[in-house]
């Protein structure tokens, strides 16, 4: 999971920095800030997704069968 967090952070940071550079025409510091914020938000979303998903070994109780 740690590798996924790092890769997600890098990819979302790069996407955010690229978007800021192309659309907003920011300088180096603006792109660096966008990279940092995008990476942090991407990692946060992945951590939330992992924390809030249901456990795979738990299953709901079966419904009672009425005859």
Topology:
Layout (H helix, E strand, L loop, with lengths): L1 H22 L4 H25 L15
Helix pairs in contact: 1-2
Report the β-strand fraction as a percent range.
under 5%
Q: Can you count the helices?
A: 2
Calculate the mean pLDDT score and round it: 85
Can you count the beta strands? 0
Into which percent range does the helicity of residues fall? over 70%
Q: How would you characterize the largest beta sheet? A: none
Described by the principal axes of the CA atoms, the overall outline is elongated
Q: Assign the structural class, choosing from mainly alpha, mainly beta, alpha/beta, alpha+beta, or little secondary structure.
A: mainly alpha
Distance between the termini: 46 Å
What is the N-to-C order of secondary-structure elements (H for helix, E for strand)?
HH
Low-confidence stretches: none
Cα-atom Rg, whole angstroms? 20 Å
Key traits:
single chain, 67 residues, mainly alpha, 70% helix, elongated
Question: Could you characterize the architecture of this molecule?
Answer:
The protein is mostly helical and 67 residues long. 70% of the residues lie in helices and 0% in strands. The protein is built from two helices and no strands. It has helices at residues 2-23, 28-52. Helix 1 packs antiparallel against helix 2 (28-52). The protein starts with a helix and ends in a 15-residue tail after the last helix.
């Amino acid at each position: 999971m740690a590798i996924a967090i790092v890769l997600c952070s890098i990819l979302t940071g790069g996407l955010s920095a690229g978007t800021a550079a192309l659309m907003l025409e920011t300088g180096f510091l603006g792109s660096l800030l966008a990279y940092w914020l995008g990476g942090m938000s991407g990692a946060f979303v992945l951590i939330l997704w992992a924390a809030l998903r249901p456990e795979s070994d738990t299953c709901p109780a079966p419904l009672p069968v009425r005859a």
